[in-house]
Specification:
By secondary structure, the chain is of the alpha+beta class. The protein has 4 domains: 181 residues, no CATH class; 219 residues, no CATH class; 154 residues, no CATH class; 179 residues, no CATH class. The protein is 50% helix and 18% strand. It has 27 helices and 23 strands. The strands form 2 sheets. A 6-stranded mixed β-barrel has the order 4-5-10-7-9-8. β4 and β5 form a beta hairpin. α16 crosses α25 and α23 packs parallel to α26. The longest helix is centred in the middle third of the chain and has 38 residues. The two termini are 39 Å apart.
């Protein structure tokens, strides 16, 4: 019997190829898109899941109750971690400091630039990076030990065993030898921490000057708690720790009016669990992503599948009208309701199986393009994950039951006598469900169109807002690790000094925005002076930085070679820093950064946006560099400089650093790169909007076809009584347009609420204009009108004699 059902199902599907094709194509596209979006969300939600000790690992961060706001800080001072181990040795099992950098590997004839992580010896004991060679307990015990991941090891040593071999590492012109003591498996893409090259934290160039400084915050810190130690309990115990090491800062904040939190703390050391750290903005700052992002992906994938299901249901009901007599005959011959349902659901199941298979194939084939377009890290192996497979299978079964079950039940309820008389009609209940489905489809489409327009408007606002410096005519590039940064800068100055196309050259330790090297960092100083506490971003710059970037001096002067004290004792601050310190005339005043003497203010620059526009402008202090202060070179071009000037700069760079890669980028490119997450979200929402519109049109077309078929005789009578074609088209389209208007009324307030919440994440925001919703609504109306009009005009043009002949 079952075999016979499938035989009939295949015959019916093959006979109605157009119906089958529309359903298969619509569902397969929906399945493929939903799978890719689901895998992207899954990727985000499973960050650090591979870590065996993830339930016991926490990142350390500060919560500081300032007089005017609560400040969270993820960067730690160098002495904090040793102090934690000393004071909480029984509660903390392992601890490590982590800070990133770059290094050039010089091995024989090979020269390779790689990322490096300066860590403590406990790093490999805490984190579950599988050791392929060496022991995690001893691999980083020696200050001259280095651990490589498998890719780096293969790149340097080929198939040879690297353990025990010497590795020459070039830190900006200083070559030092390290011994390879281990090889680890490469970290997964969804890991908070990477592991290209690991060496001891004490080798970090900043360590010597900051190892005892509690005011210089520049690295991350992680702890693994001992078994049975609760994070909340340890945080409460840390109150005495902060009072011990930060008493002066706490007392000062109290004097300034800071209020303690619910735990009675003004400065507190907090710990954030590794699981969920990817979404924790308090501990991770700008590196964290909004947890709503993966949920949005899941919602969008669900909406796409919902629209595909609606189309499938509508097409199935539309087609059931043509098979009404078949159902009536089978009922008259004794077929049970369950058998009718089984027959029609079986056909739906076959379509869903084929569509699901094609959807998986489509997702696999389009994965490289999807990764490139949306900057994702999906692989085919994601589909093979058992949990992912089970979730996809369950989703498929639910969709099949809903999409195939409802039409099958609707068909099985047909009245046998009325069907055989040719009087079958869709019930008012079915009509209500059909209308609700149309409203749902277009509400989703309008919602996504509105969201796309608002996201695009916000990104455009961010890109075009004046940032207070010259974005378009300044190139930046990293100095690399082959030669000391100050030497690269001096060489570039001397080489290009007489080129009239170049108006200025300078350098700094931190880039503006995100360049081609992908790095993004900040340095923060906290200090007390004259009975008050201060916090400032620190930026190490060289001569001519202000001129090169086109910053505006509002008071004082730039750093000058004529003043030898500028190198060690001078600093320049921005307006926000001057306001924070309460200086009406800041020139000549002191800033207590560095040693006890501090630095003297020689100039004040007008506030500019040195960070993403997600953040308000903060205090910043410019200082002159030491031996390792320059990491990026900035070159200002004349307005009429040809594109070939970039090659001239690159050629000069290659002369001093021939083994390093030249990675130039304009500052406007760098600042735009800060909004990759927003652009990615915009692209996904826009793609989903286009897809939902296409699928909605398919569904609307099917419903229009069904309704026109039911109203053929009515149209014929109206034509005989003198109705014109435009009147008939308007009459037939009116119902659909009213449903689209209802969809607009439902989707608009929801879109406004959701986008208003999203835009709150930005310190600088565009306004949500009324025209956005007008455009979204008008687009939906035009699409609906265009889709329905074809069937309406076709029905209106029919010969009334033909339509009334069978009456």
């Amino acid at each position: 019997m079952l075999k016979n059902y499938f035989k009939i199902a295949f015959r019916n599907l093959w006979k109605n190829k157009s119906y089958t094709s529309i359903n298969v194509v619509g569902l397969s596209i929906a399945f493929g898109s939903a799978i890719l979006l689901f895998l992207t969300a899954w990727f985000e939600f499973t960050y650090d899941d591979f870590q065996a000790n993830r339930d016991h690992i926490f990142k350390v961060y500060f919560k500081i109750n300032q007089p005017d706001k609560i400040h969270y800080q993820g960067n730690m001072p160098a002495p904090l971690t040793p102090a934690l181990i000393s004071d909480f040795g029984s509660e903390i099992k392992y601890a490590t400091r982590i800070v990133g950098g770059g290094v050039q590997i010089m091995q024989g004839e090979k020269t390779i630039d790689e990322s490096i992580r300066y860590v403590d010896a406990d790093f490999l004991k805490m984190f579950s990076f599988k050791m392929l060679k060496g022991s995690p307990a001893t691999a980083l015990n020696d200050l001259r030990s280095v651990v490589l991941n498998e890719e780096v090891a293969a790149n340097i040593f080929g198939k040879a065993d690297p353990v025990g071999k010497t590795l020459n590492m070039n830190f900006g012109g200083q070559v030092e030898a390290f011994v390879v003591t281990g090889v680890v498996e490469k970290a997964p893409k969804n890991s908070t921490l990477d592991n290209e090259i690991l060496i001891r934290f004490e080798n970090n160039p900043e360590y010597k000057d900051t190892k005892d400084s509690w005011n210089s915050n520049y690295h991350d810190a992680y702890v693994q708690l001992a078994d049975k130690v609760e994070a909340e309990t340890l945080e409460k115990q840390m109150k005495s720790f902060t009072e011990k090491y930060f008493k002066g800062s706490i007392d000062q904040l109290k004097k300034e009016g800071a209020k303690p939190d619910d735990r009675g703390e003004i400065i507190s050391v907090r710990i954030a669990p590794l699981i969920g750290l990817h979404f924790n903005k308090q501990a991770e700052g700008n590196r964290a992503i909004d947890i709503t992002y993966p949920y949005i992906l899941l919602v969008i994938s669900g909406l796409i599948l919902l629209i595909a299901c609606i189309n499938f249901i509508n097409l199935s009901i539309a087609r059931s009208m043509t098979r009404a007599k078949e159902v009536g005959m089978r009922k008259a011959l004794g077929a049970l309701k369950a058998q009718i349902v089984g027959q029609f659901w079986g056909e739906a199941f076959i379509i869903c199986v084929v569509a699901f298979g094609l959807g998986c194939l489509l997702a696999t084939m389009l994965m490289p393009q999807y990764n490139a377009m949306f900057r994702s890290e999906l692989t085919f192996h994601n589909l093979l994950n058992p949990t992912v497979g089970i979730l996809l299978l369950l989703s498929f079964l639910v969709i099949t039951l809903i999409a195939g079950g409802y039409p099958a039940l609707a068909v099985a309820r047909f009245n046998t006598i009325e069907v055989l008389k040719g009087k079958v009609k869709v019930s008012s209940r079915s009509g209500g469900i059909r209308s609700a489905l149309i409203v749902a489809q277009f509400s989703i489409a309008i919602l996504l169109i509105s969201c796309t327009l608002i996201i695009w408007k916000q990104i455009d606002f961010l890109r075009n807002k004046p940032l207070g410096f010259d974005e378009t005519q300044v190139i930046s590039f990293p100095v690399g690790n082959e030669v000391q940064g100050s030497k690269v800068l001096d060489y570039m100055r001397n080489k290009l000094a007489n080129d009239s196309r170049i108006l200025g050259i300078s350098g700094a330790d931190i880039n503006i925005g995100r360049g081609k090297d992908g790095s993004s960092s900040k340095s923060v100083f906290t200090f007390e002076m004259e009975g008050k506490s201060y916090r400032t971003n620190g930026l190490t710059i060289d001569y001519d930085y202000i001129k090169t970037l086109g910053l505006k001096l509002v008071e004082g002067r730039d750093f000058s070679r004529q003043f030898t004290t500028d190198k060690d004792r001078g600093c320049i601050i921005n307006e926000t820093m001057a306001k924070q310190m309460g200086y009406k005339d800041p020139i000549g005043k002191k800033v207590a950064i560095g040693d006890s003497i501090g630095k003297t203010i020689v100039g004040v620059v007008k506030d500019y946006h040195f960070e993403s526009l997600k953040n308000r402008i903060e205090a910043i202090t410019f200082m002159m560099p030491g031996d390792f202060g320059i990491n990026y070179v900035f070159v200002k071009l004349a307005p009429d400089a040809p594109k070939s000037i970039v090659d001239v700069i690159g050629h000069a760079y290659k002369e001093i650093a021939p083994k390093s890669e030249f990675l130039p980028s304009f500052l406007d490119e760098n600042t735009n790169n800060q909004y990759r997450k927003e652009e990615r979200m915009s692209q996904i929402v826009m793609s989903a909007a286009v897809l939902t519109i296409i699928l909605s049109c398919m569904g609307l077309f099917a419903i229009a076809l069904m309704i026109m078929a039911q109203r053929t005789k009515e149209i014929g009578i109206r034509k005989v009584l003198g109705a014109s074609i435009p009147n008939l088209v308007m009459l037939l389209s009116k119902e659909f347009l009213s449903l689209v208007l209802i969809a607009i009324l439902l989707a608009t307030p929801l879109a406004y609420y959701l986008m208003n919440k999203w835009i709150e994440d930005f310190a600088y925001q565009t306004n949500i204009s009324w025209w956005i919703f007008a455009v979204a609504g008008a687009t939906a109306i035009m699409i609906a009108l265009f889709t329905v009009s074809y069937q309406s005009i076709r029905a209106a043009l029919m010969n009334p004699v033909k339509s009334l002949k069978s009456e």
